[in-house]
Amino acid sequence: MQxxxxxxxxxxxxxxxxxxxxxxxxxxxxxxxxxSHAVERARELGVPSVVxxxxxxxxxxxxxxxxxxxLAPHHRRAELMAGLGVDAVLILPFTTEFSKLSPAxxxxxxxxxxxxxKSVVEGPNFRFGHKAAGNVAFLAxxxxxxxxxxEVVDLYVTGEAGGGEPFSSTLTRRLVAEGDVDxxxxxxxxxxxxxxxxxxxxxxxxxxxxxxxxxxxLPHTAIPADGVYAGWLHAQGEAMPAAISVGTxxxxxxxxxxxxxxxxxxxxxxxYGLHVAVDFLAxxxxxxxxxxxxxxxxxxxxxxxxxxxxxxxxxxxx
Length: 318
Hints:
Blueprint: E1 2-5, E2 17-21, H1 29-45, E3 49-55, H2 58-62, H3 74-83, E4 88-93, H4 96-99, H5 103-112, E5 117-122, H6 136-146, E6 149-152, H7 169-177, H8 181-188, E7 192-199, H9 204-207, E8 213-217, E9 227-235, E10 238-247, E11 258-263, E12 275-285, H10 293-312
Parallel strand pairs: 1-4, 2-3, 2-5, 3-4, 5-6
Antiparallel strand pairs: 7-8, 7-12, 8-11, 9-10, 9-12, 10-11
């Protein structure tokens, strides 16, 4: 899969293509439906498929300081899109100048002049251009002018537990923030993942017999609510069952939120300085301060047992 950053990276001899545009944070099941449709349509037409996305998130430019928590960094989104069969991903630097492009200017500058769109696939609520003035109806009108078709893919809707809301990154972020990683997994189609480099912490876990990987998460990462979770620690090409702690470590009056993963039944792991990923499969319990270290150790032992059992009945994500 080709990866381009900016319009200037697109090959000069690029021909017609099928395009879909969006932030696509998380590449959840609703996104997958749209992207897969674009890939299928591209194959029918005998042309490549392109996903256009943005960096930073448009809201950060339009309303500075409002950057939403991210469900997946761009390299992870690209991996997921490649798995869906996408031929190229174009990351457009979203600047103040770019944000001022009118919908018509966006169509010409991106879809017509550079990507030579033959078809554009979007969800019904797609908006684009300055002040999000463009919609799918306007896009279809532009398609009549510039010879590309527009296809609209209906959104997935959650079940009763999700309140019947359409699948969205906003809903997924809310579920993650609430610690409902099971609900987030339903929308994503896989466990929510947090990435970062393993750094040295207070090393209290090691002293207590449960050495953890203290993950320095990437900026703007969507981190689940404080608590203990079952999941996996991905490192050095291996997925290891893990008990994961998120919080400030109230037992020792901590103040900084951390994400720490204990690789269950593994001894002698040295992951310092490595980029790792942590997948959140299920909520185990909320964060608590115990009356004694003995009480904490008893809880940690139970956390590991429950996490081991929960992970055992699920396959690790990639």
